[in-house]
Structure formats: structure tokens, C-alpha cells
Amino acid sequence: MTGFARAEGRDGTVDWIWEAKSVNGRGLDLRCRIATGLEALEPELRKAVTARFKRGNITINLRLLRQIGTPQVRVNRELLDDLIVLAGEYRGAEGIERPGLDGLLALRGVIEPVEMIEEDGDCAARDKAISASMAELLDELSLARAAEGASLSKIVVAQLAAMENLRRRAGESAALRPEAA
Question: Which part of the chain is the Endoribonuclease YicC-like N-terminal domain (predicted)?
Fold first, then answer.
């Protein structure tokens, strides 16, 4: 059956979005696109999908969006001090303007971003939350497929009833015709 499902989640630094699409198919064909760094979730995902679904072409995507707060930076004071000394050496040179602090700070390497290092406990908690939202995604996909199946069932039953009615009417009208000599 066809269906679509979406599940989202968030922790302190990351938002994640699961999306699943399913179309009819004879066997079960699963395609996964998992965000970089979370490839270890794929075997768990494949196991969960094969436990729930027997047929269909299913595509599942997991995207991560890192929340960007105020970036942390540090000033490379050693480099800045060297640049100030160098600028002082050329103070009296003709045609050279003395650089301001803003100009020195704008040079590459003077201001460096500080990388945030995640604790292992934070990663484990987030991975657990992402796995839980994966289960929600598969529940939603299962419900969407069941709803589509129920809708199709009503249509097929109505068409079969209409065909039976036409067959019955055709049989009745044939009975009224005189036999050919």
C-alpha cells in the first residue's frame, strides 16, 4: 500500500526529521538515507521495517539539522601580538598606514572558532531519542498504509457490487427476449 509518514525530534543541539514513503510492490524493497554519523541506526531500521512490512517499495530518510547558537570563538593572542609588533616595525615607513585593531582581528587565524565537543552521554541520549522517533515513524507509516487499504477496499467492494447488479440486470433482460428460431 502507499503511504507517507514523518516524525520529528529535537534535543539541545540537534533537530532531526524522519520521512518515509511507501508505494505498492511485490516484495519488500527498502532504501535508506541516513544522516552522516548515524549510519549505525540502519541495521536497527532495516530489522524494524522487515518486522512490520512484507511488501512495498519503502524509502526512509533521516536528516539532521544542527542548531546554531552564538558561536564560541577564541583570540589567538600569540599571533595578534606578533602582528602588533610587526606593524610597529613599519610604523615610520612611507606609504604604509598603521593598521587598526579591527584590521588585525580580521586576518585569518587571529580569531578562531571553538568547536563544541559533545559528551558521550549526550550522544547516547540523542541516539536513543532518534530511535524512539523512528518507531513513531513506522507506526505512522503503518497507519497510513492501512488507511489507504481501507479506502481502496471500499472502492473495490462498490465496483464489485455494481458489476453484480449489471450482471443480474443483463440476465433478467436476456430472459425477456424471445428465443431465436
Answer: 1-153
